[in-house]
Amino acid sequence: MQLRLLLWTVAALAAAAAALNVADVPCGKQRAATKIVGGSGARPGQFPWLVSLQLDGEPWCGGTLVSQWFVVTAAHCLKNMKADRFSVVAGEHDLTQHEGKEQRLPVQAIALHPEYRVGKFRHDLAVLRLAQPAVWGGRVQPACLPASDQTEAVLNRTATVAGWGWTAEVRDGGQRADRLRTVSVPVMGPLECTDWFAAAGRKNRLHAGQLCAGFKEGGRDGCQGDSGGPLLLPLEGRSTLVGVVSAGIGCGRPGLPGVYTDVSHYMGWIKKMVA
């Protein structure tokens, strides 16, 4: 009986951990083998769904292509600014060089989650509609999205963050990364994360729709400039956007994990936005 229950539980989790494709080509396929604190340099094309979200032509945040027309990012990167100030650069790797593989795509419209409030980090999610479609190629591909409400399938797994954020806090001599960087961090739910913050003397309380990721000893984390970028897990063998970089206290501090928006919690809204 116990074995049967165990097998049923494993099967249920496997069924829940599904990858959803809203693009017109296969999603989550990395053609390259496989700012970030404590991370390492990514290979060109390793994260072909990652875009540099730019404000007035300058690097600002990250985002994730989920189809030719749509990018998922963090609402706090956009606040109440107008869409015509933003563009995304797909196929980017080194912010200081033009390699001829980049695609600069203007943003046509911004959809902030209706419950997001400026200055807060709950419901920190946005969908961008592009003014022209991304052109698929080796350096530009869509990520998969998770099925709705599959948070349990994500917890206690090691996920990947990527971005051009700061390599450390300014007080520690950090600078924005010119080249794309990546780091792997274990994922936890809002209750465990709240306990970590409490143990560190912080009153931050997380809620449904939020995830945390990081190490007790710190040292590996996203940082300023990584906001809006992806937290990725392989589901059904395909790279899937399970979280969006949202917030944190400093960068890579011991006992203070990074906070991410739980994408599966909001899939009902996302599917309406990309329809």
Automatic annotation (TrEMBL):
GO terms for molecular function: serine-type endopeptidase activity. InterPro entries: Peptidase_S1_PA (IPR009003), Peptidase_S1_PA_chymotrypsin (IPR043504), Peptidase_S1A (IPR001314), Serine_Proteases_S1 (IPR050127), Trypsin_dom (IPR001254), TRYPSIN_HIS (IPR018114), TRYPSIN_SER (IPR033116). SUPFAM superfamilies: Trypsin-like serine proteases. One of its GO terms (biological process) is proteolysis. The keyword tRNA-binding does not apply. GO terms for cellular component: extracellular space. Keywords: Disulfide bond, Hydrolase, Protease, Secreted, Serine protease, Signal. The keyword DNA repair does not apply. It is found in: Secreted. Residues 36-275 form the Peptidase S1 domain. Residues 1-19 form the signal peptide. This is Coagulation factor IX. The gene is F9_6.
